Q: What sequence folds into this?
């Protein structure tokens, strides 16, 4: 009987030790704009969100980005938008192919190791620490043997840098609320993104607002290259 | 001794039970709103034209759209704004 009790307690201690509720603040730079984002980790799920507490929004009606990772079901849920078109996207968790490098760096007192990857058109360099044994990170990133504290794209369009780590946080992810939306697949989103942009160009041309002889150049910058014609080089010209 | 073990076990179970009392409310209802954040008016090589760039920042903050119009002098920014607005209406 005594053995059973000891085993039960040991199991409970192990479960408790592995149950992780963390709140990590990141500084996020995107295309020369700076934001403050947070990563909430509740065991096998995590939520990447805008930190409303530490900053004023550009407009009170602005919505929040969210990226919800469910490691149990192997799915990622997010909101996306282009112009006035809003999308809720369900994607399988991306299998990042990380290359572990020898370079190290200290961030917030943690020794971090460098790893690199290529994801949807951009090359990234990440610094992760194995001292925090959680395979997660900002935005969609995860899959390294430790928490990603810093990551940036080689073209410097995207940079995430940890600002504060709170262990044993009481922030709980309301997954039911997130999953209450109607999601489309990544492939459907990709097609809708292209369709939305093409329709936009058609509308401009049909509107007649552009003077004869005028040259218009439109370029979209977003983390993932979905429509290379619009997102690469100088964008679209007409 | 047995009682001590039981007490510890109940304390642990209790800590799990109270772990999920707070609630974070992620924004799932996306508001259809985007803002113009910047316009730059630069002189074009052509004396009769001006170049104006308008940047639209989406509310998810992960997308920026830059619209550059090299248009008739005095009209470049108006036209760039008008072009941007077409996407938002």
A:
């Amino acid at each position: 009987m005594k053995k059973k009790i000891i085993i039960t307690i040991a199991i409970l201690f192990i479960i408790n030790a592995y149950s992780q509720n963390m709140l990590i603040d990141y500084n996020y730079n995107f295309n020369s704009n700076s934001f403050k984002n947070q990563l909430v980790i509740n065991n096998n799920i995590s939520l990447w969100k805008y930190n409303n507490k530490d900053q004023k929004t550009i407009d009170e009606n602005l919505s929040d980005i969210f990226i919800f990772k469910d490691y149990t079901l192997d799915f990622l849920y997010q909101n996306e938008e282009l112009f006035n078109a809003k999308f809720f996207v369900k994607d399988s968790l991306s299998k990042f192919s990380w290359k572990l490098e020898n370079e190290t760096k200290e961030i917030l007192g943690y020794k971090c190791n460098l790893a690199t990857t290529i994801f949807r058109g951009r090359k990234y360099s990440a610094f992760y620490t194995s001292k925090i044994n959680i395979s997660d990170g900002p935005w969609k990133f995860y899959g390294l043997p430790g928490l990603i504290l810093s990551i940036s794209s080689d073209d410097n369009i995207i940079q995430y840098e940890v600002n504060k780590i709170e262990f044993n946080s009481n922030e709980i992810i309301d997954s039911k609320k997130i999953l209450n939306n109607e999601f489309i697949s990544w492939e459907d989103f990709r097609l809708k993104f292209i369709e939305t942009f093409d329709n936009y160009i058609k509308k401009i041309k049909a509107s007649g607002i552009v003077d004869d002889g005028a040259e218009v150049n439109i370029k979209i910058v977003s983390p993932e290259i979905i429509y290379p014609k619009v997102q690469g080089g100088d964008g679209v010209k007409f | 001794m047995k009682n001590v073990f039981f007490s510890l076990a109940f304390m642990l179970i209790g800590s799990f039970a109270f772990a999920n009392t707070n609630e974070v409310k992620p924004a799932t209802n996306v508001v259809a709103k985007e803002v113009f954040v910047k316009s730059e008016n630069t002189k074009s090589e052509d004396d009769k034209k001006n170049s104006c760039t308008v940047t639209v920042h989406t509310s998810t903050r992960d997308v920026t759209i830059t619209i550059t119009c090299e248009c008739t002098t005095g009209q470049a920014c108006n036209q760039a704004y008008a072009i941007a607005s077409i996407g938002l209406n």
Chain A touches chain B through 64 residues (CB under 8 Å). The first helix of chain A runs from residue 2 to 18. Helices of chain A lie at 2-18, 175-179, 186-207, 228-231. Chain A has a mean pLDDT of 86.
